[in-house]
Write a structure and sequence with these properties.
By secondary structure, the protein is α/β, with parallel strands linked by helices. The protein has helices spanning 21-79, 85-137, 140-145, 148-190, 192-239, 241-246, 250-303, 310-351, 443-450, 473-478, 494-499, 507-516, 520-524, 543-557, 573-587, 622-628, 631-637, and strands at 363-367, 376-377, 384-389, 395-399, 404-414, 417-427, 432-437, 458-463, 466-467, 480-483, 492-493, 533-534, 561-565, 591-595, 607-612, 615-620. Strand 13, helix 15 and strand 14 (591-595) form a beta-alpha-beta unit.
Length: 643
C-alpha cells in the first residue's frame, strides 16, 4: 500500500525479477560472502567450536564404517566354524571401543546443532535490528515509494529464508564437505578401483544438479518477488475492508487476489519442480551406484585383484553411502542457498539504503522562561532557542520566535513533474496561516517541505531567519507539532499514545493536554481510563476519538509551530466547535499552518492562501478574500465545491 503526495513514484516499490542467470549467480555469491562475513565477525569463537564438532562427528561416522572391515575380516570370518571364547572377548572389546567412538560422534552432533541454533537466532536478531534501525533512518520518500507489504515481507519471508540458510543450509553444506573429504580419503585407502567407480557416479550427479539447479534458481527469485507483492495486496485489502464492502468490491478483490496468487503458485511450482527432482534423482543414482560397486567389488575379490576381501567390500559399500549422501545434500542445499540469497539480497538492499542526510548543525535547546538573557537548561520549559555553532568552537544562541518565510519555492517529487511554483509565504510568530484548495493543489506538500520530509529544488525556506537546511532535522521536527488527517495510534495505553508527543511528559501534563483537546471526557469513560490499552491502531475507538487523541499528542509536545492537516476532518460539527476553542488556546502565541476543506475552520486565520495546481492564486484574510469575490468567495458561498 503506497502513500502518494500528488505523484506516483516510478517503479511502485515492487521488486522486479532479477536479470539473467549469470548476474544472479554473481550476486548470490557476493551476498553469500557477505552473510558469512557477518557470521564470522560476530560469532567466530562459536563457529570454531562448531567446526571442531563437525570434524569429530564426521570422523566418528567414518571410523564406524571402516570398523566393518575389521569386524568381518578380523573377527567374524576367522571365527566361522571355530568357537573361540577368546575371540568373542576380543570382539566385545572392539564393539565397546566403537561404542565409545559413536558416543563421541553423537555428543559432537548434539553440541554442533545446539551451537548453530544459538548462532542462527542471534544472527537473525542482529539482522532484524539492523533492518528495523535502518528503516527508522530512511527518508519519508522511501516509504512513499515502497509498498508496506513488501517492507513487512522483509521481516517475515526474507528473514525466514535467512534463518534456513544460517541454521540449516550452511551447516549442512559444511558438514557435507567435511564428510566428503574424510570419506574420500578412507575410500582411497580401501580401494582405488572402487573409488573410480564412485567418482564416475558423482560426476553424473554434479551434471544433473547443475542443469536442474540453474533452472530453479531464477524461479526462486521470482517466487520471492511474487510473495512480497501478494502480501502487500493482502495487507492493503484487509486495511481497506470497509471500502471493499461499501462498494461491493469483494468479487473484484477476490479476482485480483487469484491473479497474484496464481502468479506465486506458478513461480513457486516451477522453482520447486526442478528442485524436488534433484533428491529423488540423486537417491536413484546412489542405489544404482551401490549395485555397481557390489558387482565390481565381487569381481575384484574373485579375481584376487588389489587384495579385495569381503570385509573391504562391505566397508566400502557403507563408505559409498556416506559419500553419496553428503554429495546429494550439497546438491539439495544449493537450491536452498539460492532461495535464501534472494531474501538476503532484499534485506541487504534495505541495509545499504542511503539514510536520510542531515547536513544541519544548528540544534534546538530548552531555555529558562521569562529571562532577558538566554540560559540553556535540560528540562522542558516551554521556551526554546537555536544553538548555533560559532567559528571559535563555542556556541551562540538565538531565541526561537516561530517566524517562517518561504521565498520563491519550487518543488517536484519526480523530475520533470513540478508540483509547486514560486511559493512565497511570510508567517510571523503567533499568526495562523491557512491553505485551501482542491485535492492535489499542493497544500500538504508545503507542510512536507517545512519539516524537510522533502527538500526544495529552488528558492529558500527560513525559520527565524535561519535557512532550514542549516538546522538539524531532529531539532527542526521537534519544533513542529503535527496533527495529520490519517491518525496512527500504537499498541499501548491511551496515556502512552499521548505521551508519544513528548516522552518526558508527566501524567498531569498528559491530562491537561487531553482536556485541551476535549479528549478527557471520553477517555475517562473508557474501561481503564488513561490506562486503557489500545490495539489495532485504536480499532475500539471512533474516528473522531482517535483524532482527539492525536490532537492531545500534539498538545503535550507543546511545540512553537503547529501544522494541522485536516486535523478536525473526522470530528462532528458540534465537537469541532468545542475542540476549536481548545485548539485556539493551543495555538495562542504560536505560528500555525492549517490545511482544511471546511472553510469554517480557517475563517479566523490571519492569512489564507488559495492554491490551484501548485500556484498561490489568492491570499489575504477571510474578509479580504470575500471582497475579492474570487475562488475563495465561490467556495465560501457554495458556487462550487473543492474536488
Amino acid at each position: 500500500m503506497k502513500r502518494n503526495f500528488a505523484y506516483s513514484p516510478p517503479g511502485g516499490g515492487r521488486h522486479a525479477p532479477r536479470g539473467p542467470r549469470e548476474k544472479i549467480t554473481m550476486k548470490s555469491v557476493k551476498t553469500l560472502g557477505r552473510v558469512l562475513g557477518m557470521l564470522f565477525k560476530e560469532y567466530w569463537f562459536l563457529l570454531l567450536i562448531v567446526g571442531i564438532t563437525t570434524v569429530l562427528s564426521s570422523l566418528a561416522n567414518t571410523r564406524g564404517s571402516m570398523f566393518l572391515q575389521e569386524l568381518v575380516d578380523d573377527y567374524i570370518v576367522p571365527m566361522i566354524g571355530k568357537p573361540n571364547a577368546e575371540g568373542y572377548s576380543q570382539l566385545l572389546k572392539a564393539i565397546f571401543y566403537m561404542g565409545l567412538i559413536y558416543l563421541v560422534g553423537v555428543g559432537s552432533t548434539f553440541l554442533h546443532n545446539w551451537l548453530m541454533i544459538s548462532v542462527g537466532q542471534g544472527m537473525l536478531r542482529k539482522v532484524r535490528a539492523r533492518v528495523f534501525n535502518k528503516l527508522q533512518s530512511l527518508p519519508v520518500k522511501y516509504f512513499d515509494q515502497h509498498g508496506y507489504g513488501n517492507i513487512m515481507s522483509l521481516f517475515t519471508n526474507d528473514v525466514s529464508t535467512l534463518r534456513q540458510l544460517i541454521s540449516q543450509s550452511i551447516p549442512q553444506l559444511v558438514t557435507s564437505i567435511v564428510t566428503i573429504v574424510i570419506v574420500f580419503v578412507n575410500m582411497l585407502r580401501l580401494s582405488g578401483w572402487l573409488t573410480v567407480v564412485v567418482l564416475c557416479f558423482i560426476a553424473l550427479m554434479f551434471i544433473f544438479t547443475a542443469l536442474l539447479g540453474g533452472k530453479s534458481g531464477k524461479y526462486y527469485i521470482k517466487q520471492q518477488a511474487s510473495l512480497g507483492e501478494l502480501n502487500g495486496y493482502i495487507e492493503e485489502t484487509i486495511n481497506g475492508q470497509r471500502v471493499v464492502k461499501v462498494f461491493c468490491h469483494e468479487d473484484k478483490a477476490k479476482a485480483d487476489f487469484d491473479v497474484k496468487n496464481e502468479e506465486l503458485r506458478r513461480n513457486a511450482t516451477r522453482a520447486n519442480s526442478f528442485a524436488n527432482v534433484v533428491m529423488p534423482l540423486m537417491n536413484n543414482l546412489g542405489n544404482i551406484q551401490y549395485v555397481v560397486l557390489a558387482v565390481v567389488g565381487g569381481a575384484l575379490a574373485v579375481s584376487g585383484v588389489g587384495g579385495m576381501t569381503i570385509g573391504t567390500i562391505i566397508a566400502f559399500l557403507q563408505l559409498s553411502r556416506n559419500f553419496s549422501m553428503p554429495v546429494s545434500q550439497v546438491s539439495e542445499q544449493v537450491n536452498h542457498i539460492v532461495l535464501a540469497m534472494a531474501g538476503a539480497d532484499r534485506l541487504f538492499q534495505v541495509i545499504d539504503e542511503v539514510p536520510e542526510d542531515d547536513e544541519g548543525t544548528i540544534d534546538l535547546v530548552n531555555i529558562k522562561k521569562d529571562l532577558d538573557e538566554i540560559v540553556e537548561v535540560e528540562e522542558h520549559t516551554g521556551a526554546w532557542a537555536w544553538k548555533i555553532p560559532a567559528e571559535n568552537g563555542g556556541f551562540t544562541y538565538k531565541r526561537l520566535c516561530g517566524d517562517v518565510i518561504l521565498t520563491d519555492v519550487d518543488f517536484s517529487y519526480v523530475e520533470g513533474k513540478q508540483v509547486l511554483y514560486d511559493i512565497s509565504i511570510d508567517a510571523e510568530r503567533g499568526e495562523k496561516v491557512a491553505f485551501v484548495g482542491a485535492t492535489g493543489a499542493g497544500k500538504t506538500t508545503i507542510t512536507n517541505l517545512l519539516n524537510r520530509f522533502y527538500d526544495i529544488q529552488d528558492g529558500t525556506i527560513t525559520y527565524d531567519g535561519i535557512d532550514i537546511k542549516d538546522i538539524k532535522k531532529s531539532a527542526l521536527r521537534r519544533s513542529l507539532g503535527i496533527v495529520l488527517q490519517d491518525v496512527n495510534l500504537f499498541t499501548g495505553t491511551v496515556r502512552d499514545n499521548i505521551r508519544y508527543g513528548r516522552l518526558d511528559a508527566t501524567d498531569e501534563e498528559i491530562v491537561a493536554a487531553a482536556k485541551l483537546a476535549n479528549a478527557h471526557g471520553f477517555i475517562e469513560m473508557l474501561p481503564d481510563g488513561y490506562d486503557t490499552v489500545l490495539e489495532g491502531d485504536g480499532s475500539g475507538l471512533s474516528q473522531g476519538q482517535r483524532q482527539l487523541i492525536a490532537i492531545a499528542r500534539a498538545a503535550v509536545a507543546d511545540p512553537p509551530v503547529m501544522i494541522l492537516d485536516e486535523a478536525t476532518s473526522s470530528i462532528d460539527t458540534r465537537t469541532e466547535t468545542i475542540v476549536q476553542r481548545g485548539m485556539d488556546q493551543l495555538m495562542h502565541g504560536r505560528t500555525v499552518f492549517v490545511i482544511a476543506h471546511r472553510l469554517s475552520t480557517v475563517m479566523n486565520s490571519d492569512l489564507i492562501m488559495v492554491l490551484e495546481h501548485g500556484h498561490i492564486v489568492e491570499r489575504g484574510n477571510h474578509d479580504q478574500l470575500i471582497e475579492q469575490q474570487g475562488i475563495y468567495y465561490r467556495l465560501y458561498t457554495g458556487a462550487f465545491q473543492l474536488d
